[in-house]
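Hi everyone,

Forwarding the result from last night's run.
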Amino acid sequence: MIIEKDLVKQPVPPTISLAYKNGHIIGNLIYEETSLTVKVELEDNYILLSEMSCDIHKYLNNKIVPYWDEIKNFKLLYIPIEIPHIGSKGFWYEITVTIDDADSTIKHITGTLAQYAELDHVNNYDVEIRTQSDIERDDYDS
C-alpha cells in the first residue's frame, strides 16, 4: 500500500470524496483525521475485505462543514489508496451513518466496499463460481 508522505515524512491524510450511488462526486469531506481507519485484507491479489470508518464533526470554526446534510446512509465514499500489486488506485465504500446521541454534532461513518455491499442485497441461487463443476465446463475460461 502506498501512503503519501509530506516533507517531514509524516503521512498525508487522504482526501475522502462523498458521492451519489451513480459515482457522481458531491464534494470532499472534512473529517477528524485521527478517527479514519481503513482495513484492507488481500489474498492472492484479491480483495477479501475492505472496511472504513471515520467521524465527521458538524462544525468547523463555528460554521457547518460542507455537505453535512448530504452525509446519509447508502451514499458512496471514495478514498484514493494505491495498492500497486493489485492495480488499485482507490476504493469506493457504501456508507452507514449514525449520529452521536450526546449532542448530534458528530456523524460516525462506517463503510463497506461498494461491490460487496451491492452483492449483499442479492440472492443468487444455484450459482457456482470457481467450483470444481464450474471449472470442468467446456465453456469455462480461466
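Strands lie at 16-19, 25-29, 37-43, 46-57, 59-60, 63-64, 76-79, 91-99, 106-113.

Cheers,
N.
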